[in-house]
Amino acid sequence: MTGNPAVLVEHLHKRYRDNVAVQDISFSVAPGEVFGILGTNGAGKTTTVELIAGLRAPDGGRVRVLGLDPQRDRRAVRHLLGVQLQEARLHDSLTVAELVELYRGFYPDPRPASELLEMVELTAKRGTRFDRLSGGQQQRLSIALALAGRPKVVVLDELTTGLDPRARRRIWASIASLREEAVLLVSHAMDEVEELCDRVALLEAGRLIALGTPAELVAESGTSSLEEAFVALTGRYVEVEEEVT
User: Fold this and answer.
1) Number of domains composing the chain
2) Structure pTM?
3) Domain of life here (predicted)?
4) Which of 125, 166, 176, 194 is 20 to 30 A off residue 119, Cα-Cα?
């Protein structure tokens, strides 16, 4: 990778009491790259992106977002980073247009509301309350809000979980339309990762066990699909752990 990374993670550690959630993870993400973070439930995916977003402080290692520390430079990073988290909650009684205007007000140079709604195909729903949107429409609105401040880095956590195939494809199109932003996509959906991601970090038990393009992970595992590679590589890691213990 050439040039300065949009995101740099070096020897990252995070512990919750007796549970080590992230162990010595390192990777970098280039501007304009869609970078997948893939793993089983409890692998450390969400903790990793929360550390990158500055929502949690690391116990060891360092994170840089466009050269800034998400903890020390919190205000500056907030203007450069857009985040859509799986557990985010929005005010049910506000309309789509009201929520967009609310989020635009957080930034000095926000995207126009009309552009945001067009990006996620919600112009016709601008007067609809959030609680009256379908699941797919709510997810697309969350993406629009994450992009409101013209971020240079976007974090998307399990953005299509539980959605029907048509809604998933619409959200994929929204992500594919981004050109300059670095995107960190947290997912356990293999088809989503193959469709959208330039490179993938595969996590298991808080550790980085594989890193490369989807095709490189398939080749490394000696399988014929990313899903098979996922099973083979995570299974291989578990076998090594059992031998060590």
Assistant:
1) 1
2) 0.89
3) Bacteria
4) 194
